């Protein structure tokens, strides 16, 4: 009996040892939310309001109105995450990261960080939302709408970086007297840069009525001169004659369910002249939907924001357009997937 118990104990120890690699793999993924919440809490407490000074734990405690123990554990956690440097008991945000917290700079990410608290709350109800037992959060779904995107300076920074990588591939297709339609381009950055870089006749931006707040600022002169126009409308429902030489869609389709994606593509093709170019940029996703990198999680994010929305694979768009006789001109893999298509001439 004792021998049997010893044997069972040995089997359990071997099983535990064999399971350790799997648990070591799962555990960091399971607890990654702790890192996010430490950064969110630090932003809420105002830690990132002062990023250039060396501070002791006592200094931080006083400034954040928390105990010295609380100040110590959070600043040490930030140090462990590589965001804060420590020397002889004094702490300072790492200089390159500190630049991301510069007020009125156009790249202050503090609002982006604090806004993620809403995402944490919504995602904690993910199972209920998927079953239909819990409602999607309208504030979360519309956080970038109605001018809200102006608050997300970190997102604006990334969008500009991506645009500058993509624009060199678009510019050669924009000839003198060309008219361009940017569907969902209410930020106006592509319109602004195309007016600066090409002899485009006019860029029309189609977006929801409250979506033009940034473009109104960055394209003020071009709007006055008529080189840029704002067209309020819904990408799913707009109808326009085939009058555009180039139609752009930048990170748009993932906001919609499957049938709406195809309706938007049909509307884009209808707006395009024969021989015109359709330019689609999107977050990359392989045909299986399993990669690359973080983009399957981005698809979950879209699903939590909008009913039945998801990030479609690159192949889905290519196959759908090719089946309708649209020619693939180029596919470029950057931070985003850039796809350029051409409508037949006759």
From TrEMBL:
Keywords: Methyltransferase, Transferase. The keyword NAD does not apply. Pfam families: Methyltransf_25. GO terms for molecular function: methyltransferase activity. One of its GO terms (biological process) is methylation. Residues 180-276 form the Methyltransferase domain. This is Class I SAM-dependent methyltransferase.
